[in-house]
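FMN-binding glutamate synthase family protein (Scytonema millei VB511283), 448 aa
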Amino acid sequence: MTQSISREESWGYDRRILNYIQHAAAHGLYEIRGLGAKRRLPHFDDLVFLGASMSRYPLEGYREKCTTKTILGTRYATKPIQLEIPITIAGMSFGSLSANVKEALGRAATAVGTSTTTGDGGMTPEERLSSKTLIYQCLPSRYGFNPDDVRKADAIEIVVGQGAKPGGGGMLLGQKINPRVAQMRTLPEGVDQRSACRHPDWTGPDDLTIKIQQLRELTDWEKPIFVKVGAARTFNDVKLAVHAGADVVVVDGMQGGTAATQTVFIEHVGIPTLAAVRQAVDALEDMNMKGEVQLIVSGGIRTGADVAKAIAMGADAVSIGQAILMALGCNSETYVQNGTHYSAIEDYAAIGTAPGYCHHCHTGKCPVGVTTQDEILEKRLEPEVGARRVKNYLQTLNMELTTIARACGKQNVHHLEREDLVALTIEAAAMARLPLAGTDWIPGVQPM
């Protein structure tokens, strides 16, 4: 008699956890990877809009305009940023990305009338020349930080933390530190780099005030100063950023991406973007600064619906990183050279993955030329091709955003409001502090 084989998987020790334990036991090392959290988290997908019908009057899509213009930095800066759309490109460094990609992002942002951001490691000439509106990041590492380049920028973003790793510093492994990256960052070639987790010249929020004043004096009070925080203790962090003098606060939820960091950070530190945006808005409203200090939300923004929901919850704009890489061709089966598509499947296999599953940004062996410094691989991303794809993507997001706004009866996307939204799950309703669909109940606010 044949004995049956049990195949009941343990919830606490499923194949994923078993693989983790066995890998740790074999190598004594934690995993480092790129991109963002893979676990299912409460997200904007858990919200829906209440479109217009009888009690609300929709706009006619072809004849009635819906404005998307966005102004950032109106608090103190004499030259606020004026954008055509409320969708910006997040900071991603030269080093993490190739010079071709940075040029492509600048071209795309300029074409649709929005901004792009330098990321760690400084400003490249390709990026500045191709970007009409460029934001210069000041990070804890200070890699490549150049006061002359700061003056050339249109705004400055002081990065306190990122959503993928609040409380941790970035990584750039040695295989991506080629001679040019090494020179810009004053680092040895081919040696792993780990950025600091906090700024070297301050120990608390009072020192941030001093840093903001220094940067204002450096730029003659012209340029808006952004402060970016990874979503953790969001309510208090936003208040401190505003108190320190920020014109704009950027809140990055835990669905945000990274070029390389420990998986334990990506999956287990920080809070979801959905919860963070509500806490950030609460902080601004508590200080009576809503509208005077602008709020940018990032971390897992993928679609025009995500953009619309973030704005309805109180954001003035969003910032996108990972999805921009996908638009460039990240995780695509092919890359384009001279108008011809070539298969990259074998190159994915060579680094132990496949299209749609790749998170190997840290290796520098990106099969489609996005996150690489390899002289051959980086040519697989032609700037004009990448720019066209990102432009198309951003235009699509903006069309989806205005479609939703019109359906809710809004002539300006910034008129979207919390009253336009309901939640589909109890968790999302509690985090976003919105009523559960079909009820008036807001979990944690009202008794059931």
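The first strand starts at residue 32 and ends at 33. Residues 303 and 397 are 6 Å apart (CA to CA). ok done for today
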